[in-house]
Amino acid sequence: MKALLPGLYLLPVPIPYPLQTVNLYLLRGEGEVALLDTALGTRTARGTLELYLAELGLCFQDVKTVLLTHHHPDHYGLAGFFEGLGARVYLHEEELPRGHRFWLEPEAFEEASWQLFLEHGTPEEALSGIRETMAKTRERVHPPQSPIPLRDGEVLEVAGRRLRVVWTPGHADGHAAFLLEEEGVLLAGDALLERVSPNVGLWAYTRANPLKDFLASLRRLGELPARVAYAGHFGPILEVRKRAEELLLHHEERLQALLHHLERPQSAWELSLKLFPQELDPAGRRFAFAETLAHLEYLRHEGVLDREGPPYRYFRP
Ligand SMILES: [Zn+2]
Ligand SMILES: [Zn+2]
Fold it and tell me: Which residues does 118 contact at the CB level (< 8 Å), separation at least 6?
C-alpha cells in the first residue's frame, strides 16, 4: 500500500490473470472511506484487501462507497460483497444493460455469444472449455444488486474530494475514469495502461463499434488537465497525453497490419491467428478474436471493408 496524496492510497491486489495485479484506490477523508474498484472474489484478493484496510485501522464494513471503473471481474468482482455490507456502489449507466447484465443474467447472452463466435469462423474446438472457464469466473464475481448509475461529466463528492466522471468507452462500454480536478490526478481504470495496450473487444453484449469508441476516448483522455494517471494495472502514467497518443498510433498500426493480411476474403477468426501469431491459451485466443473483430468492424463502419456471409468473411470492396 502506498499513499499517493493525503487520503489517497494505492492498493495493489493479486489476481490469477496474466496481468497478475489489479490496482485499487482508497479515498479517505471527512469521516468517509471509499474504494475505487474491488478486485476479484478470491481468497487471496480478499485477504490482501483486508490486511490493507487493517493497516489503516479499517475493516470491510467501513467502506461506504464503491466506485467501479467497469464490469471486468478483476475490478467489479467484490462489488456485491461490499454492497451486502452496506456500501453504495456506483457504475456507469452504459454498463447496466451490458457488462453488468452479463454477470446478473449470463444466460441472456450465452446463445448470442456462441453464435457470434461461430458466425465469424471460430472452430467449435476453440470454444471447448468456455462454459467451464466462465462458470469458474462467475464463482469469483459478486455482482451488486442495485448499482447507482453514473453519468458522464457528473461530479461526485467523495471522502472530501471532488471527482468528475469521464465516460471512456472502448475497453468496456461503460468504462468510467475519475478526474480529481483540483489535484490534476486521473484515476484511469483500464482506459490507459502504462505497459500494455488495453484490450478492445467486440463481444455479443457490447456496443457495435468499440474501437471507434476507444479511439475517441483516447483523444479525450489526452486533452484532460491531468498531470498523472493512476491506472488499473501497472505503474503511474506521468505523460497522459503522450500515452494516449502512443495507444492511438498502436491501433493505427494494427489496422494497417490487418489490411495487409486481407489479400483475400477471410473470417475474423482466421485473421486473428495472423494478427496474434503468438501462442495463447484458449481464453487468450478468444480475446485476440474479439479484438480482431473490433478492428474489422471499425474498418467496415468506415467503409474500408465489406463482409459477406454468414459465416462472415471480410474483404476490401
Ligand atoms: Zn478491464
Ligand atoms: Zn483490468
Answer: 124, 311
CA of 232 to the centre of ligand 2 (A): 6
Q: Which ligand is nearest to the CA of 231?
A: 2
| Whether the predicted pLDDT of 110 surpasses 90 | no
Beta bridge pairs of residue 228:
185
Q: Could you tell me which of 189, 215, 168, 151 has the C-alpha nearest to residue 68?
A: 189
Q: Closest ligand to 74 CA?
A: 2
Question: 76 CA to middle of ligand 2, Å?
Answer: 9
What cell was used for 238?
506521468
Q: Has residue 192 got a pLDDT over 90? A: yes
Provide the residue range defining the domain that includes 65. Answer: 2-103+142-260
Q: Is the pTM of this model over 0.90?
A: yes
Q: How far is the CA of 11 from the centre of ligand 2 (A)?
A: 14
Residue 124, domain member (yes or no): no
